Amino acid sequence: MKTFRLPPVLAAYIQTESARCGLDTTAFVTRVLDGYRTDYGLPSAGRAVLDEDRYALALERDQYLLHALYQRQLEVRDKGPGFDSPNAGIEPLMGEGGR
Questions:
Q1: By three-state DSSP, how is residue 3 classified?
Q2: Exposure of 5 by Cβ count < 10 A (0-12 exposed, 13-18 middle, 19+ buried)?
Q3: pTM > 0.70: yes or no
Q4: Could you give the CA distance from residue 67 to residue 51 in angstroms, rounded to a whole number?
Q5: Angle at CA 94, nearest 5°, toward 90 and 96?
């Protein structure tokens, strides 16, 4: 067991987000940190490709995630939110927002 000191604004954010997700604070922090450690469950082949890219760009893991999110926002800005959804172009069924 480890104890960490956090700025009040970060501690409040963690408490708010953990409640929103229906998790206790420890479970939420564990989930976020383990996700960061394991590339959020990406298969090892995918992790290897991204690690190679990250090393080629000479970025730390957090910098690489910021880079990837920035690239995604460029696509969303150009193509619109949800442009690559598996359900894109499929009309909802009746009772699911249909007519």
A1: coil
A2: exposed
A3: yes
A4: 13
A5: 75
Mean pLDDT over all residues of the chain?
90
Q: For residues 38, 42, 43 and 46, what is the CA-based torsion angle, rounded to 10 degrees?
A: -110
Q: Tens digit of pLDDT for each residue in 29-66?
A: 999 999 999 999 999 999 999 999 999 999 999 999 99
**Three-class DSSP category at 26:** helix
Place of tokens 């927002």: 97
Task: Note the residue count of the chain.
Answer: 99
Residue type, 70: Y
Q: For 44, which DSSP code?
A: H
